[in-house]
From TrEMBL:
Associated pathway: Amino-acid biosynthesis; L-methionine biosynthesis via de novo pathway; L-methionine from L-homocysteine (MetE route): step 1/1
Binding site for Zn(2+): H643, C645, E667, C728
GO molecular function, one term: 5-methyltetrahydropteroyltriglutamate-homocysteine S-methyltransferase activity
GN (gene name): metE
InterPro entries (UniProt xref): Cbl-indep_Met_Synth_N (IPR013215), Cobalamin-indep_Met_synthase (IPR006276), Met_Synth_C/arc (IPR002629), UROD/MetE-like_sf (IPR038071)
Listed cofactors: Zn(2+)
Residues engaged in binding 5-methyltetrahydropteroyltri-L-glutamate: R20, E21, L22, K23, K114, N119, R517, C518, W563, E607
Annotated EC: 2.1.1.14
Cofactor detail note: Binds 2 Zn(2+) ions per subunit.
Residues annotated as binding Zn(2+) 1: H643, C645, E667, C728
Pfam families: Meth_synt_1, Meth_synt_2
Protein name (Swiss-Prot/TrEMBL): 5-methyltetrahydropteroyltriglutamate--homocysteine methyltransferase
Amino acid sequence: MTAQPFTATITGSPRIGPRRELKRATEGYWARRTSRTELESVAANLRRDTWSDLVAAGLDSVPVNTFSYYDQMLDTAVMLGALPARVQPVHDELDRYFAAARGTEDIAPLEMTKWFDTNYHYLVPEISPDTRFTLNPVKVVAELKEALEQGIPARPVVIGPITFLLLSKPVDGAGAPVERIDELIPVYSELLSLLADVGAAWVQLDEPVLVTDISADTPALAERVYTALGSLAKRPAIHVATYFGDPGAALPALARTAVEAIGVDLVAGADTAIASVPELANKTLVAGVVDGRNVWRTDLEAALSRLATLLGSVGTLAVSTSCSTLHVPYSLAFETELDDNLRSWLAFGAEKVHEVVTLARALREGRDAVADEIAASNAAVASRRSDPRLRNEQIRSRIDSILASGAKRGNAAERREQQKARLHLPTLPTTTIGSFPQTPAIRKARAAFRSGEIDEAEYNRRMKAEIADVIALQERLGLDVLVHGEPERNDMVQYFAEQLDGFFATQNGWVQSYGSRCVRPPILYGDVSRPHPMTVEWITYAQSLTDKPVKGMLTGPVTILAWSFVRDDQPLADTAYQIALAIRDETIDLQSAGIAIIQVDEPALRELLPLRRADQDAYLQWAVGAFRLATSGVADSTHIQTHLCYSEFGEVIGAIGELDADATLIEAARSHMEVLDDLNAAGFSNSVGPGVYDIHSPRVPSTEEIANSLRAALRAVPAERLWVNPDCGLKTRTVEEVTASLQNMVAAAAKVRGEAA
Ligand code: GLN
Ligand code: ZN
């Protein structure tokens, strides 16, 4: 191929719109408020603005087809003719696409899961024995043409065949999807030839799966697939992008094929291997030195010297982001409440593009050509290093001394005795996971408070009224351990981040979580400390309304870490311990206020698990350590619970026991309690609350159904270690659904309690 090599690009870009225009347009379309024409014009405008900004900033190759109405894996499934049969009755193409994404009254949507270790979620394609792969290139070709007509040096981006198949799931008795790789090679071949016809000089095939251990033989597979695609007579130059980690043996494997460019994530992965791959000498290495998924400004001096060491080992060196900037907010320009120092440490999407261009220019014209940018970057590095908010010696020495004393609670069996004597709970105690329905009244109060229509006192009064309602409801239902319902929490991480020092909440730092859903992760930039108690007032108010125990509700350190943008200037473990210390102080304050049961949620424990097996033990060690630091400050008579949001524990099953919570409330309804056997096999011996019904569905489970779940649980766990609770928080359900379901749950517990006695 004779395509001109490029020197400055990014892997992909955000698409939801700088002001979330696409969110509004798609949601409007779904609600039939927005016409198809309007939706399409919002989308076309966003694409045009994105591309022209990237060209204006100085990129010489621009990723296209990174726009999506919902998700890029779903786009790929459409492109490969791999939508499930159940959506075929929807005639209109776009509506069929949305049906696969969101479901309709009678069509179940595709399952959704996390995109590697990011907070983006993709739709999982289903591969059945009946799936017939055929090329449907309408979207990618249209976007390519659209960009070329606008004079954009466009590089279409598509998910590669290996990643597509390894992230898909088999259905209807099909074998592993990856076994069908040979059927995809002709489809991708046809695609490449078509893209060449339309005028693409380059194509980018995303293969992030090559940085994982999902399958042992991915390097060999990569070599085979890309040897085949590389040998095509008519095709654009091929750029295979790996990201989120070190491609390891896949790097030399790809380098042995005829592809023209290989992308590596130099922020997450090691670059030592590059010099030892001789075949890279005649390739373009797309060096991801600008962090595409975190918000920190690049240390240009350091990045430049790193790039300089690669120059001798590769044919052409192109500068890029480590991955798509889909994972960071659009631009710092919207943030008006940042102090100058903090602002100087940050780079969002637009600023990262500028960094890429600056580095490419330095490689081309020499360091002096970008002397001003480097000086500004050095000043930011120095300011960040010396800012007192980044080092709180008191916090650090407290953590050291607690860790030195072991951060462990007393013997679990003795704790159980003490808690039993204090709490007087029946066997099979009933409880919930924490949140109650987010009613229209709660949403209205929050909006009114935000807009200044009501003051804080009025807002607090309304929240307390909600708490009183939820307590009264739980008393009526006869639950044993009550919750306050979490009405005051906008989000289980943001609520704490807003009250802790060391965090900054952005005004417009939205990133896509899935479909039209966006989140605004807080930025954890400094040492974390807790200036005042965060939950005590709400919980003690709830407790004052009832004689039943009310649980304190906290989010765990790993989850707060996982759902924030985290500082990159110290090991994650150190940051986790700091958050843990703040949570620990909160548990002690709750205990002093008379609260006897505290739940510390860690739904993200499994999410942060490193992609490579070799790194997982070290992670689990500090993750468990942080949880124990957070929960070991209380007396043995205080009952600590945790909640984890999933049932397939896999690699983390051993860690669940290590957390040493007095009770672990987990999702189990959808897996029919099988998780209990796995826990037993891992030697778990504390109490457990396997969710007895699925809160993700509006269906109200019958008493008998729940009783059967409990009977199944009792075959694996003795009654004195079993709790009765739903799968997860109830905030997405209606009051009617929750009332009916909990009524049946309490009745089922009573029934099974009777049988056991
Ligand atoms: N306590 C939280 C709730 O009930 C837990 C949410 C979660 O597990 N994600 O909403
Ligand atoms: Zn949950």
